[in-house]
Structures are given as structure tokens and as C-alpha cells.
Amino acid sequence: MSVERTQNIEGGDEKATAAEVTTMAAAATSYPVAPGHRLNVRSGPGTGYSVVRVLSEGARVRINCQTTGTWVSGPYGTSNVWDNIGSGQYVSDAYIYTGSDGYVAPRC
């Protein structure tokens, strides 16, 4: 037997599962790019994907979901976690200060 936890969404009678609440909370939080760095945003989770834009110093990102990809060394260690920040837009988690070495958003 399984029990699904739900939570009321503010402003209505709709309910969301615990996973949906976690996804919404992660998307509502923004994280800073490492100070002093401009960061390539790539079309996929790896350095072999094309650069679609560059984030300026001091930028903040909202992480929709996270996935594994190319290993990258950056100011926050070496990681193969890539953060999806928009449709077809990924940045290496090694350059994003999330306060965690693990996942802070649902897997893509």
C-alpha cells in the first residue's frame, strides 16, 4: 500500500505531490555563479556541447533539474553534475554555489 503526500498550493484547492513541491522549491531558489567567473551555458550536459550564451560575473541561476555529464573542475571542486537552467541550457555545477556536493534539484 502506498500513501501519497500532498500539500495545498497557495491560492487554490489544487494539491501537489511531495516530488512536485520539491521541484517547485528548487526552481524558486537561485544560486550564484562563482565570483569572478563568466560561465559558458551549453546546449547539453558536457563540454563537448556548443556554447549557447555566457553568464556574466555575479549572475544567479535557477536550477530546474540536474543530470550527469562531463567531469569539470571549478571553484567548487570537481563534479560531473550539470544544472539545467532552461530549455537546452546547462552549466557545470562546479561553478555554481549550491552549498552541497550532491543534488539540490530533481534529476533530469
Mean of residue pLDDT values? 84
Number of strands: 9
Quaternary form: single chain
Beta fraction: 35-45%
Fraction of residues in helix: 10-25%
Characterize the main sheet: 3 strands, antiparallel
The poorly predicted ranges are 1-13
Task: Give the N-to-C terminal Cα separation.
Answer: 27 Å
Describe how the helices and strands are arranged.
Layout: E1 6-8, E2 15-17, H1 18-28, E3 30-32, E4 39-42, E5 51-55, E6 60-62, E7 65-74, E8 77-86, E9 89-92
Antiparallel strand pairs: 1-2, 3-6, 4-5, 7-8, 8-9
Describe this structure in words.
The chain is mainly β. The protein has one helix at residues 18-28, and strands spanning 6-8, 15-17, 30-32, 39-42, 51-55, 60-62, 65-74, 77-86, 89-92.
Key terms for this structure?
108 residues; mainly beta; 3-stranded antiparallel beta sheet; two-stranded antiparallel sheet; 9 strands; 42% strand; globular; disordered N terminus
What can be said about this structure in brief?
The protein is mainly β and 108 residues long. It has one helix at 18-28; strands spanning 6-8, 15-17, 30-32, 39-42, 51-55, 60-62, 65-74, 77-86, 89-92. A hairpin with a 2-residue loop joins strand 7 and strand 8.
